[in-house]
């Protein structure tokens, strides 16, 4: 079942020096229970796509497109309607856990706010103040259950702690617990393991995989780390300079990349033994004045004259979408 359909999403930011054309014509679908990774170097538009789905960009930034969640366009919803979905059916895990939590609130207070926001229980301002003074044992039990779901050791102590008293890995688990409190259908994870050491990174990715299976969640990951994409995502979309360049099954795309940019990204992964270091020559484009045709053409070793003039369409190669004239008729 298709949960989310992104159609021709185009996002431009109007600034005092001009129009920054950050994302153009992004198209993809997300099925129930599927995990999808948006990969690409910093500044390729991955997080902008995520923030558009979350509904936190200024409405005038979205110049074109549709975001169909369960067949209803999120972009045409009013704020009241959207707030029943944003943070409820579609939730978010940010990349910096410490700065995402309020340093003056204990973890219990964060949970209380999140549970009330999710309508468990429904509370007006007076009953909220009462709940803040003394959290009933029923609610505390629910909080402990969620902390156990994300495998937090010593949850009673953690509930009484402030964010700065906990490690990055613990905080990321807490953010995941807060994100699943509302039984979401889609979880958006923005570089969820970037700030963590490799051992904790592996544990968090395993936890997310388990939750995806147990809760039937669909997850969109944003990552610049191809290893993370390989470990967790069924499907991958490679983005370059705000354009999609390749889409397919993660293991297939990373084992045999077709687009010259994807090849460059895969080749730039350092090898443990031999091989040296290979980067992609050149740097990111000027979004105010992007290159014509294929945005990758100034850096592409295979560029042809058509690449400089006309933007490539998606060509289907071995069941994969590749936006490159090398695969054209
Ligand atoms: Fe290179 Fe042309 Fe393909 Fe773009 S369309 S990646 S410039 S070959």
Secondary structure topology:
Blueprint lengths: L1 E14 L2 E14 L3 E5 L6 H9 L7 E8 L2 E2 L5 H5 L6 E4 L3 H4 L6 H11 L7 H9 L3 H13 L5 H6 L7 H13 L5 E5 L7 H18 L2 E6 L2 H7 L2 E6 L2 E7 H6 L4 H8 L37 H5 L5 E3 L2 E3 L7
The chain binds iron/sulfur cluster.
Which characteristics define this entry?
329 residues; alpha/beta; Rossmann fold; 8-stranded mixed sheet; 12 strands; globular; binds iron/sulfur cluster
In short:
The chain has 329 residues and is an alpha/beta fold. It has 2 domains: 2-89 and 182-327, Rossmann fold; 101-181, no CATH class.
Top CATH class of the largest domain? Alpha Beta
Radius of gyration: 21 Å
The major pleated sheet works out as: 8 strands, mixed
Q: Report the portion of residues in β strands.
A: 15-25%
Would you identify the CATH H-level superfamily of the largest domain?
P-loop containing nucleotide triphosphate hydrolases
Q: Which percent bin holds the helix content?
A: 25-40%
Count the strands? 12
CATH topology descriptor of the largest domain: Rossmann fold
Low-confidence parts: none
Bound molecules: iron/sulfur cluster
Number of domains: 2
What is the spatial order of strands in the main beta sheet? 6-7-8-3-9-10-12-11
Structural class: alpha/beta
CATH architecture identity of the largest domain = 3-Layer(aba) Sandwich
Average of the residue pLDDT scores: 91
**CA(first)-CA(last) distance:** 33 Å
- Give the H and E element order: EEEHEEHEHHHHHHEHEHEEHHHEE
Described by the principal axes of the CA atoms, the overall outline is globular
């Amino acid at each position: 079942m298709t949960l989310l359909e992104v159609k021709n999403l185009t996002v431009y930011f109007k600034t005092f020096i001009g129009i920054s054309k950050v994302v153009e014509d992004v198209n993809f679908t997300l099925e129930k229970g599927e995990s999808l990774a948006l990969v690409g170097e910093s500044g390729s538009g991955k997080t902008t796509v995520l923030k558009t789905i979350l509904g936190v960009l200024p409405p005038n930034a979205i110049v074109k497109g549709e975001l169909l969640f369960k067949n209803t366009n999120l972009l045409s919803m009013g704020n009241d309607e959207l707030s029943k979905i944003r943070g409820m059916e579609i939730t978010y895990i940010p990349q910096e856990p410490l700065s995402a939590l309020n340093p003056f609130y204990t973890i219990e207070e964060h949970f209380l706010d999140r549970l009330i926001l999710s309508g468990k229980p429904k509370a007006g301002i007076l009953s909220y103040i009462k709940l803040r003074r003394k959290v009933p044992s029923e609610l505390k039990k629910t909080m402990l259950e969620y902390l156990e779901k994300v495998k937090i050791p010593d949850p009673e102590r953690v509930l009484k702690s402030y964010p700065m008293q906990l490690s990055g890995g613990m905080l990321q688990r807490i953010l995941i617990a807060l994100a699943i409190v509302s039984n979401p259908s889609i979880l958006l994870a923005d570089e969820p393991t970037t700030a963590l050491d490799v051992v904790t990174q592996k544990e968090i990715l395993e936890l997310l995989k388990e939750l995806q299976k147990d809760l039937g969640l669909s997850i969109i990951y944003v990552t610049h780390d191809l290893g993370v994409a390989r470990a967790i995502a069924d499907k991958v979309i490679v983005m370059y300079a705000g354009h999609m360049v390749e889409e397919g099954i993660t293991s297939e795309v990373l084992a045999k990349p077709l687009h010259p940019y994807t090849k460059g990204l895969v080749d730039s992964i350092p090898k443990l033994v031999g091989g040296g270091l290979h980067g992609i020559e050149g740097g990111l484009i000027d979004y105010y004045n992007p290159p014509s045709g294929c945005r990758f053409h100034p850096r592409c070793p295979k560029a042809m004259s058509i690449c400089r003039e006309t933007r490539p369409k998606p060509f289907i190669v071995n069941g994969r979408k590749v936006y490159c004239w090398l695969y054209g008729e």
